[in-house]
Design brief:
- Helix content is about 25%, strand content about 30%.
- Strands 5-4-3-6-1-7-10-9 form an eight-stranded mixed sheet, sandwiched between helices.
- The chain has one domain: Dihydrofolate Reductase, subunit A (3-Layer(aba) Sandwich), CATH 3.40.430.10.
- The longest helix is centred in the middle third of the chain and has 12 residues.
- By secondary structure, the protein is of the alpha/beta class.
């Protein structure tokens, strides 16, 4: 059976990005970049918005506010281009132009459940907040990993990650600090029907 990892990179206050900020909020360091390069091969799962954004980067579109890619950003995009990717969308059409990408037009939860049962290895979301939320609600997520960068983007934060999530209990399985400032936490999630101290029925 394949394992499913939901993987987020966030500000401390739970935003996926910030208007005017560079990738990784400009705070990636050598330990963090080395760890990124050591990650095992995975099949990446994403929705249409993430596909459009990341395939645009792969085609040479530079993030807003930048003149060019930084070396670490270019390497990250190259790694994604080489990786196997499954894209869930009712709006995109075959053939997808980004290398190693497969389009699935049906229900993402059903498709991922079948992928988990039929294969081995690791599946991982990238971005795709609504897809990640749907997979978690369905009880398909085996590991929930967050890398938090030491910034609060209350004024400029974009894409609040946890809005619309159910209540989830998190059992920690790993933690690590990179470059003295970047914190990784990894959990096994358990979706809750109600708060554990709820005594009203």
């Amino acid at each position: 059976m394949q394992e499913l990892l939901v993987d987020f990179i966030t500000s401390l206050d739970g935003y996926a990005s910030g208007d005017g900020w560079p990738g990784f909020w400009g705070l990636e360091g050598p330990e963090f970049l080395a760890w990124l390069g050591e990650q095992p091969a995975v099949t990446y799962l994403m929705g249409a918005n993430t596909y459009r954004l990341m395939s645009g980067f792969a085609a040479g579109e530079v993030p807003a506010g930048q003149d060019d890619f930084r070396a670490e950003e270019a390497e990250s995009v190259d790694q994604l281009t080489r990786a196997t990717k499954v894209v869930f969308s009712a709006s995109l059409e075959d053939p997808l132009t980004w290398a190693n990408s497969t389009l699935v037009g049906g229900d993402a939860v059903d498709a991922v459940r079948a992928m988990k049962n039929d294969g081995s290895g690791l599946l991982s979301t990238i971005g795709s907040l609504s897809l990640s939320r749907s997979l978690l609600r369905a009880g398909l997520v085996d590991r929930f990993r967050v890398v938090m960068f030491p910034v609060i983007t209350g004024a400029t934060g974009a894409e609040r990650i946890y809005d619309g999530y159910p209540d989830v209990a998190l059992d920690m399985v790993d933690s690590r600090t990179f470059d003295g400032r970047i914190q990784l936490v990894e959990y096994r999630p358990r979706v809750l029907d109600r708060p554990p101290l709820d005594t009203n029925g």
